[in-house]
Design goal:
heterodimer; A: alpha+beta; three-stranded antiparallel sheet; B: about 400 residues; 13 helices; 17 strands; about 40% helix
Chain lengths: ~140, ~400
């Protein structure tokens, strides 16, 4: 088996986030709710955020999906908490670039997210990784429901 | 079981994927194509390509003969009374939409009922949802038994004198269930409803006889039965089709065109507006020749044995859940499953790294996923070119998947 390639996809930090997701649940005091799904595979996510003065004060996610989509959501919530909406959107764009295999601005701190860089080699799985980020971008840009 | 030599007709199967010989187990999504079909398409474009039913030149005649010859092959394949009852379309989806928009709009009104089941593919749900919304009709679902089959008692309870259309799949693309279409058709007719059959998963695998079924409409796609993509068939009873209006208007389907009024050609051409899918139809004809030479009964038997073998072997894997009827006599050649808590996408990715192609997702059947109380599943589907070796590779791949995720979890 091409275990090496697989190991690049399923890095231990991803499996750790999948097994023990951060910020899982629904925010009671959230003022932004976004539901998004991936119609080609059935993954669903609900993002609840508390955005005040253009700062993401708190964020939770709930959903069903594969290890990649759920781990990505967990990492995303961990990273954007406390960011300004502008910073969060900028990070989402950097993440999107990483999925497309583009070179990244080195000034951006990716932390755990770096583990998802292997997804770029699995084109069928890129949408799994980007689902929660798309939901977040929609939320902070004021397109909430 | 069929001979393993059948694989040799399918050049695509002879390749490595991620360093392993390809095991293709996604034929319910689309089948692979035998060299006979590929060469027929190649020959058509090299030597015979022309438009049909017009012009007097030799190529035009060859193309027309090929196209109409394919229609006769389809007629025989499903045992329709006449080629007038065989309409070429893009696929099952277009065919069912045509029935909904043409027959449905003319015959369904407020308070009437349309009856389908919980196991349908989206292509046999949404056309009826739309029709119900437009007309004010009620869309009713026949509930499934616990093992994923239909009971005729529930069919009888759901279909009433208000029912105008019953539309049900012949074989389920997820559960593998083979539905009792002949009996359901009788019940529909007792209440004056027409019976429409989604045969997308039946036509590739078993002998269809529309006269025996007595169904009013039947739809299937060429690409799932060794033919090209972009060609499918709508069968309809002549009396019904004669009274239906086309839904696509333009070239090829007209008789006389005036400034403000036009008239239509006779059947089947009035439903084939625009330049038809000539190469696709001829390719479908070649696929039918290929399947009939092997024999649909032999193909059905082969898949049946393969699915039985797969269910036995897969059941030995701890934590593997199989959906649909357990009785092999009640199911077709596919196995839908989940492995422990491993998400089907993750299963499919690990299998792909082992050269094994399976489908993962909701299989265009979201209401059925809801009924099964899962968000998605994985599916291995078999066809005439698959062997017990393929099943062994799948089982080995699933064991590897399980170990892999046990390790990394």
């Amino acid at each position: 088996m091409s275990t090496n390639k697989l190991d690049q996809l399923y890095r231990s930090v991803i499996m750790e986030h999948y097994k023990h997701p951060k910020n899982k649940g629904v925010l009671e005091n959230g003022n932004v709710t976004i539901d998004m799904n991936n119609p080609t595979c059935g993954d669903v996510i609900r993002l609840t955020m508390n955005v005040e003065d253009d700062i993401v004060k708190d964020v939770n996610f709930e959903g069903e999906g594969c290890s990649i989509s759920m781990a990505s959501a967990s990492m995303m919530t961990q990273m954007i908490k406390g960011m300004t909406t502008e910073e969060a959107v900028k990070l989402a764009h950097s993440f999107s670039d990483m999925m497309l295999g583009k070179d990244l601005d080195e000034s951006i701190e990716l932390d755990d997210l770096e583990a998802l860089s292997g997804v770029a080699q699995f084109p069928a799985r890129i949408k799994c990784a980007t689902l929660s980020w798309k939901a977040m971008e929609k939320g902070v840009s004021g397109e909430s429901q | 079981m069929l001979s393993k030599d059948i694989r040799n007709h399918f050049p695509i199967l002879d390749q490595e994927i991620n360093g392993h010989p390809l095991v293709y187990l996604d034929s319910a999504a689309t089948s692979q194509k035998p060299v006979q079909v590929i060469e027929t398409l190649d020959r058509y474009y090299r030597f015979d390509n022309s438009n049909v039913h017009r012009g007097v030149h030799t190529l035009g005649n060859r193309a027309t003969d090929g196209y109409e010859g394919a229609r006769e092959k389809v007629r025989k394949f499903i045992n329709a009374k006449s080629t007038q009852e065989v309409i070429f379309m893009r696929g099952t989806t277009t065919a069912i939409n045509t029935v909904a928009q043409s027959y449905g709009r003319a015959n369904v009104s407020e308070g009437d009922e349309i009856v389908i089941t919980h196991m349908e593919h989206h292509s046999n749900i949404i056309p009826w949802q739309q029709l119900a919304k437009e007309t004010g009709a009620v869309l009713k679902y026949i509930d499934l038994e616990e093992d994923g089959t239909l009971s005729l008692d529930k069919v009888r309870e759901t279909i009433t004198d208000k029912t105008k259309i019953v539309s049900i799949m012949y074989v389920s693309n997820v559960l593998g269930t083979m539905n009792p279409i002949e009996e359901i058709t009788k019940i529909a007719h007792q209440h004056g409803a027409v019976m429409c059959v989604d045969a997308a998963q039946a036509a590739p695998h078993l002998k269809i006889d529309v006269q025996n079924l007595d169904c009013d409409f039947l739809a299937f796609s060429g690409h799932k039965m060794c033919g090209p993509t972009g060609i499918g068939v709508l069968y309809g009873k002549k009396d019904l089709l004669n009274n239906m209006e086309p839904i696509e208007f333009g070239g090829e389907m007209i008789d006389f065109v005036g400034l403000y009024e036009s008239t239509w050609k006779e059947l089947p051409w009035k439903f084939e507006g625009g330049t038809p899918i000539i190469a696709g139809a001829i390719g479908l004809g070649a696929a039918i020749d290929f399947l009939e030479e092997i024999g649909l009964d032999a193909i059905e038997q082969h898949e049946h044995e393969l699915a039985g073998y797969a269910m036995d072997k897969m059941s030995e894997i701890d934590g593997l859940t199989i959906y649909g009827p357990r009785d092999p006599d009640k199911r077709a050649g596919l196995v839908t499953f989940n492995l422990d808590d491993v998400h089907p996408h993750d299963v499919a990715t690990v299998l792909d790294m082992n050269g094994i192609a399976v489908r993962a997702g909701h299989h265009c059947a979201q209401p059925l996923m809801k009924w099964l109380q899962v968000s998605s599943t994985a599916r291995a589907s078999f066809y005439l070119y698959n062997t017990t070796d393929d099943v062994d590779r799948l089982v080995e791949g699933l064991r590897t998947t399980k170990e892999y995720f046990n390790d990394v979890y």
